[in-house]
TrEMBL record:
One Pfam family this sequence matches: Asp_DH_C
Database matches in InterPro entries: Asp_DH
PANTHER family: ASPARTATE DEHYDROGENASE DOMAIN-CONTAINING PROTEIN, L-ASPARTATE DEHYDROGENASE-RELATED
Matches recorded under Gene3D superfamilies: Dihydrodipicolinate Reductase, domain 2
Originating species: Ataeniobius toweri
Residue stretches making up the Aspartate dehydrogenase domain: 78-162
Entry superkingdom: Eukaryota
Protein name (Swiss-Prot/TrEMBL): Aspartate dehydrogenase domain-containing protein
Length: 171
């Protein structure tokens, strides 16, 4: 599945999973820019994953959003939170930008797209990289917070390191 955001549609998700089972095939979901996806999946599988939050911050020219949320940005405006909420609600708004979050929601199957929380941030200072922050919460105060700076060109939807991550996650 080259664009995991499509899996936020529960009907499509279920149909693809059923077709995979019916034909004895596997759905491969690339992790893209998601750091620690296997750890998230292990915590999910052992029942220790309590919460998952992902923030993606990019220059406003790097977003491809549905609707007009970001039509009024100006250079130098700084940081603006565009959306904060469930990844289920975010994916249709930013299907080209949040595949990392969708891959995390697949890894965190017990939380799912509705339980995984995401935030997208427009930041005019981010001209050379995107920032992906992942916060994983487990039992008894366990918390992991990672920050990934993904080099990119101004206006690019994804960072340059994502292509290799995408390909290597399928190998």
């Amino acid at each position: 599945v080259g664009s995991p955001s499509a899996l936020s549609d529960p009907d499509l998700n279920q149909k693809l999973r059923q077709a995979s089972l019916h034909h004895g095939r596997t759905l491969y979901i690339p992790s893209g820019a998601l750091w620690g996806g296997q750890d998230i999946q292990r915590m999910n599988d052992t029942g220790t994953l309590k919460a998952l939050f992902i923030r993606m911050s990019k220059h406003p020219s790097c977003f491809r959003l549905t609707g007009d949320i970001l039509n009024d940005w100006t250079e130098g405006e700084g940081r603006r939170v565009l959306f904060r909420g469930s990844v289920a609600d975010l994916c249709p708004l930013a299907p080209n930008n949040v595949n990392t979050m969708a891959a995390a929601a697949v890894a965190a199957e017990t939380l799912g797209f509705k339980g995984v929380q995401g935030e997208i941030v427009s930041d005019t200072a981010l001209k050379d990289f995107h920032v992906v922050e992942v916060e994983v919460t487990g039992p008894d105060g366990f918390l992991v917070h990672t920050v990934r700076r993904n080099p990119t060109k101004l206006g690019a939807v994804t960072g340059s390191a994502t292509y290799n991550s995408f390909w290597n996650s399928l190998l």
